[in-house]
Specification:
The structure holds 2 protein chains of 2 kinds. Helices cover 19% and strands 31% of the residues of chain A. By secondary structure, chain A is an alpha/beta fold. In chain A, the strands form 4 sheets. A 7-stranded mixed beta sheet of chain A has the order 10-9-8-7-11-12-18, with helices on both faces. In chain A, strands 1-2-5-4-3-6 form a 6-stranded antiparallel β-barrel. In chain A, helix 5 (200-210) runs parallel beside helix 6. The two termini of chain A are 42 Å apart. Chain B is an alpha/beta fold. Chain B has a single domain (12-294), classed as Alpha-Beta Barrel (TIM Barrel). In chain B, the strands form 5 sheets. An 8-stranded parallel β-barrel of chain B has the order 3-4-7-8-11-12-17-18, surrounded by 6 helices. Classes of the chains: A alpha/beta, B alpha/beta.
Chain lengths: 331, 310
């Protein structure tokens, strides 16, 4: 089986409005489902016309692996995406009827990952950004139907805490899905219509202030301001954190360089050493601490103050859309 | 080889360069080839042109770099690329195995950089030729875009020609008054072929925030929206020069490609269409064959420049 992304005309098995401007699409595409991992995405072609021109990226809210016994239609294998109507493309998408086909390219990008020793995951979702975290919660809970026995999935041991935020109760996504996974999400709404009055990041702060977090790993998806706040807290409490970034994309496969994210240049010293002289891993990567650009080189003595820490632009569609927050330049 | 069972000849000649068919993947939309490998068979393409390359690596512009527009898109990537050295070391090994003619798109800030690039790429195994992107500011001429002045075009292409005997195609910018005059300057300087059009400068504004959508404020417009302009310019240039012309601009379907061929393009490039349909080039190749058969034509070349006027 080759691991390249597939272009398929997927049959729409379910297309429902979830709330005011949130929609759910279930798409039959065993070829994609077989390869898909939470945090990855598909590029959806809105229609077969030339306008709107570009495909839209959507991360999976659920992945249905092909089952041997096909009791339900999705047992053939497919994916679910949730989307919010924000512009012309997504508003045209709402017209697609169940039974029709829609053009998908995927799975694409790099999804979420686990880290050894981090047995507790806190998932922080804001608005429609909750969707991709749902498939990851399933994976972490060992619920996603795998070919291997669920009990043998080491990730299943991960304890999951789901924090969900939205503007109002209509904009809170994923509570029924969480409950199906035996998870009771903590909820925050900006108007206080559900859960606490505030943001998902307020819930996170509470958790981090009271809890032990040596074995915790944070995962977040939502508006950029929320992600920046989560990253800041992750830094403050020294908890590793992964964020799924949304960005304007054209090709989705790494060719156009349109969807870049500013990240720290890890191997800038290696890059300077193109003469072929040896570089050991110890001296290759400068450790950059804090926002002020103070670099401390291991074994190098005095810290070096640099006004502009080395950076590069990483393709969100290839190196992301999930990034370790320590890599990103938060400006 | 290029002759199909039924005698259909899809091959085209761009001066000294022979391609198995007239469909080329355009620079900047196809990465270094490897990005689309596995999604489509690269060997089916007439050729592929790699992302614009400079002597030194370039980081490119800050995001956002792309914006969708009516039937098209704006981009301001900022010529991000890995630089010549990394290209030769890390990208060429794959391209050599791709069984596809590879053209390398090059650019520079001064004439000498173009010449240096051309010299160093000349004898590299697996490179069929060069495409010079001259839609960049000439640092020594006060930042004037090379492609906008016939004199600058003549000078830079002459320099490249002196540095290499490789196949040399010159990619022209549509952001000029008299495109034919520019094309003639490139021909006189020794270009083997002309490709056009590069993207048109445009912009888009977010009215909620009253800020430009692109961090670079302006960007290059591409996609179906620009096809009529590309077609008109190809037609004008094909009449003005004696070297082959390669049509670019908004080609997404076989019909688009056929229009360009009829207007005088010896071959065509497919660009942003790959973003919405990775198989666009393959569908265009198939569609051209269907058209040739339906019209009792035995070769692509018999169609080129067959426009009937008056």
């Amino acid at each position: 089986m080759n691991l390249y992304p597939k272009e398929v005309k997927a049959k729409i098995l379910l297309h429902r409005r979830i709330s005011a401007d949130y929609f759910r699409l279930r798409l039959l595409c065993p070829e994609i489902a077989r390869l898909a991992h939470p945090g990855q995405f598909v590029m959806v072609r809105v229609n077969e016309l030339k306008d709107p021109f570009l495909r839209r990226p959507f991360s999976f809210s659920q992945i249905f692996l092909p089952q041997e016994k096909k009791k339900k239609p999705m047992d053939e294998g497919g994916v679910e995406i949730c989307y919010q109507v924000v512009g012309r493309g997504t508003s045209l998408m709402t017209h697609h009827l169940e039974g029709h086909r829609i053009d998908l390219l995927g799975p694409l990008g790099r999804g979420f990952w686990t880290e050894e020793g981090r047995t507790r995951a806190i998932l922080v979702g804001g608005g429609i950004g909750v969707a991709p975290l749902l498939s990851w919660a399933q994976e972490l809970r060992g619920i996603r139907q795998r070919k291997k026995k669920p009990g043998k999935n080491p990730e299943a041991k991960t304890e999951v805490l789901f924090l969900v935020g939205g503007k109002s109760k209509e904009k809170v996504l994923g509570i029924p899905e969480c409950r199906k996974m035996d998870l009771e999400p903590l909820v925050a709404t900006e108007d206080g219509s559900l859960g606490i009055k505030g943001m998902a990041t307020d819930l996170l702060e509470r958790e981090l202030l009271v809890g032990q977090y040596d074995s915790t790993l944070l995962y977040a998806c939502g508006p950029m301001r929320m992600l920046a706040r989560v990253a800041q807290m992750a830094y403050q409490f020294t908890v590793p954190c992964q964020v799924l970034l949304e960005s304007r994309m054209a090709c989705g496969v790494g060719a156009c360089l349109g969807c870049t994210v500013k990240v720290r240049e890890e191997d800038s010293q290696k890059a300077e050493r193109r003469d072929g002289s040896s570089s050991t891993s110890e001296e290759a990567a400068p450790e950059i601490e804090g926002e002020c650009g103070v670099e401390t080189r291991k074994g190098g003595g005095m810290p070096v103050i640099s006004e502009a820490p080395p950076f590069r632009y990483a393709r969100a569609c290839k190196e992301g859309p999930v990034f370790d927050t320590r890599k990103i330049f938060w400006e | 080889m290029a002759l199909k069972k039924d005698g259909l000849d899809l091959s085209v000649e761009l001066g000294p360069l022979k391609l198995k068919n007239p469909v080329i993947a355009a620079s900047g939309t196809f990465g270094y080839g490897e990005e689309y490998a596995g999604i489509i068979p690269l060997k089916s393409l007439g050729a592929l042109i790699t992302k614009g390359l400079s002597l030194e690596p370039r980081k490119g512009n800050p995001p956002p770099r792309v914006a969708e527009t009516a039937s098209g898109m704006l981009n301001a990537i900022g010529l991000e690329n890995v630089g010549l050295e990394v290209f030769l070391r890390e990208k060429m090994p794959f391209l050599r195995k791709a069984k596809c003619s590879v053209l390398v798109n090059i650019f520079g800030c001064v004439e000498e950089e173009y010449a240096e690039m051309a010299r160093r790429l000349s004898d590299v195994e697996g490179i069929a030729g060069l495409e010079a992107n001259i839609s960049c500011p000439n640092v020594k001429a006060g930042g004037t875009i090379f492609a906008t002045e016939a004199k600058l075009v003549f000078q830079v292409i002459s320099k490249i020609r002196q540095a290499t005997s490789s196949f040399l195609m010159v990619k022209l910018s549509p952001n000029v008054g008299d495109i034919a005059k520019i094309a003639v300057a490139a021909e006189e300087a020794g270009a083997d072929a002309i490709s056009l059009i590069n993207s048109l400068t445009g912009m888009a504004i977010d009215i909620k925030t009253r800020t430009p959508i692109l961090a670079n404020i302006t960007g290059g417009l591409s996609g179906p929206a620009i096809k009529p302009i590309g077609l008109r310019m190809v037609w004008q240039v094909a009449q003005a020069v004696h070297i082959p012309v390669v049509g670019i601009g908004g080609i997404t379907t076989p019909e688009d490609a056929l229009e360009y061929l009829i207007a005088g393009a010896a071959a065509i490039q497919v660009g942003s269409a790959h973003f919405i349909d990775p198989r666009a080039s393959l569908k265009i190749i198939d569609g051209i064959q269907v058209y040739l058969r339906a019209n009792d034509l035995s070769s692509v070349s018999s169609l080129v420049g067959s426009l009937k006027v008056g």
